[in-house]
Amino acid sequence: GDFSLGLGWFLAKGASRGWSQGKLIVGIRIVNHSHEKPGRSKALIRELTGKPLGSIPMYLGFAWILRDSERRGWHDHIAKTHVIKVQRLDP
């Protein structure tokens, strides 16, 4: 349905390129260890595996960002991604 279509667009266009509408607004991008676009496989791992695992228990995987020296949540560690600040995003 509509959810599948939206998720498909997000993963194909946004997450695999390292940005979403919200990330565009705040000036951040998701990258791999080489500071390149993460690609579809890392985006799928980050969004569909890492984020659900990070929300159990009590969103500890997201709170981990506050303690991590690189400010990476469990979803970033699982997918081997980083979030960086950028001046301008080229979707």
Shape: globular
Low-confidence stretches: none
- Radius of gyration (Å): 13 Å
End-to-end gap:
26 Å
SS summary, helix count: 5
Average pLDDT works out at: 86
SSE order: HHEHHHE
Classify the helix fraction into a percent range.
40-55%
Helix/strand class: mainly alpha
Would you report the number of β strands?
Answer: 2
Which band does the percent of strand residues land in? Answer: 5-15%
Query: In order across it, which strands form the biggest sheet?
Result: 1-2
Mind summarizing the main beta sheet?
2 strands, antiparallel
What does this structure look like?
By secondary structure, the chain is mainly alpha-helical. Helices cover about 50% and strands about 10% of the residues. The protein is built from five helices and two strands. The chain has helices at about 1-15, 20-25, 40-55, 60-65, 75-80; strands spanning about 30, 80-85. A two-stranded antiparallel sheet has the order 1-2. The protein is globular, with a radius of gyration of 13 Å. It starts with a helix and ends in a 6-residue tail after the last strand. The mean pLDDT is about 85.
